[in-house]
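Retro notes (design track)

What went well: tokenization of the new backbones is finally stable.
What didn't: we kept losing track of which sequence belonged to which structure.
Fix going forward: every design gets posted as structure first, then sequence, in one message. First example under the new rule, 180 residues:
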């Protein structure tokens, strides 16, 4: 529906009139975070965007990181070229230096431990906790004559029953340590 709406937009329709779809393409988005970033430069090449694993899965952002890394790469290449320098690994290291100074690497570095935490504890962070939070929100928003103190006790009991006190504290501490 969204693709059809875009294809039928007055500014797009004339551009694709008479065309024929040959294939659709898509790709997986890497979510390894800072620790999954590969070598970003070499003799005659740089890697940008999600090809460089520059994706912040925690904040669901990637396009802005891709565009910024592309801009930073272009600026680094222009600087090397303006000094009449060859596109060697040593000269293109400027790209990594400039990228390290940008928000891209600073943000990814801040959340460097989150992917491992979420992957090793995925059933809790992607199933148990969202379900418990949804139940808690429904419980607190429902007007049914039940006093809030009782709703709080029921919600707390549901969390403890699902994860135990130690499990809740352990998850909270590990989340806080990974988030810092």
């Amino acid at each position: 529906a969204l693709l059809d709406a875009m294809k039928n937009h007055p500014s797009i329709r004339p551009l694709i009139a008479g065309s024929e779809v040959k294939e659709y393409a898509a790709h997986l988005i890497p979510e390894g975070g800072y620790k999954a970033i590969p070598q970003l430069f070499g003799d005659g090449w740089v890697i940008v965007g999600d090809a460089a694993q520059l994706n912040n899965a925690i904040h669901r952002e990637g396009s802005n990181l891709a565009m910024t890394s592309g801009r930073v790469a272009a600026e680094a290449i222009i600087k090397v070229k303006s000094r009449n320098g060859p596109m060697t690994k040593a000269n293109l290291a400027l790209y990594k230096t400039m990228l390290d100074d940008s928000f891209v690497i600073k943000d990814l570095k801040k959340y460097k431990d989150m992917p491992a935490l979420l992957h090793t504890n995925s059933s809790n962070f992607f199933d148990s906790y969202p379900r418990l939070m949804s139940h808690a929100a429904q419980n607190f928003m429902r007007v049914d004559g039940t006093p809030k103190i009782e709703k709080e006790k029921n919600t707390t009991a549901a969390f403890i029953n699902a994860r135990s006190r130690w499990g809740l504290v352990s998850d909270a501490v590990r989340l806080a340590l990974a988030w810092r």
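Added context from the reviewer: The mean pLDDT is 93.
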